[in-house]
Amino acid sequence: xxxxxxxxAKIIIIIYCLIGILIYYFQEKLIxxxxxxxxxxxxEFPFPFKEVNLPYSEQSTINIVQFLPADSAVKGVVLYFHGxxxxxxxxxxxxxxxxxxxYEVWMIDYPGYGKSTGxxxxxxxxxxxxxxxxxxxARFPKDKIILYGRSLGTGIAAQLASVRDxxxxxxxxPYYSFTSxxxxxxxxxxxxxxxxxxxxxxxxxxxxxxxxxxxxxxxDELIPISQSKRLKPFLKKNDEWIPLENAGHNNCMxxxxxxxxxxxxxxx
Length: 268
Fold this sequence. Notes:
Helix content is 37%, strand content 19%. It is an alpha/beta fold.
């Protein structure tokens, strides 16, 4: 009997260690799900846009798509940091929510996403966000720039807002920190020591002086609403945390509470 217990205990330990090793060495593949596009790929969207390719280094290029309002009287720009899946093409349908209010909305693809090239790291995400912001500042004053983060992009947008001024920071389906989110998915592993990506949204929010609005679906299974509830203590008096009843992770924009509040931010 003791031999059987020892045998199965050994098997369980080996499996636990093997899964841990796989998580550590393949974490980028677990976290990031890019869809690569050919360098000569031609975007096709049913609304006005302009593509920008910024050489960042000898090994990397930043691809940005700027969606433009029909009205030439542009109020400002929304810098949109998207989620972990595919590329800009997936998030382009969100552009009219901003352009209808006469805001340009610029979307950036992270290293290895779409037509962007380069090595992925947390530092690269922050560095590219800064380049993105500086590009916007060349055309717009800081009080005309709104930073918008969705899912994975919430930590990136929050970090940028903590070190640069903007009109507002809007977060859709944020996490408390990336390590916190990962720990909730794999509670039996010491993920804080295993992950190379911390993305501590809660730390960055404490340094943000701009108004903050958070949207989160109550039925979000990918990033549970409990993650953003933990951010509430770090919000300022007039910041807003808006739960969207029955919304999931990918359909917040279909709910009236989202569209109404977003319009209010953009029309203010």
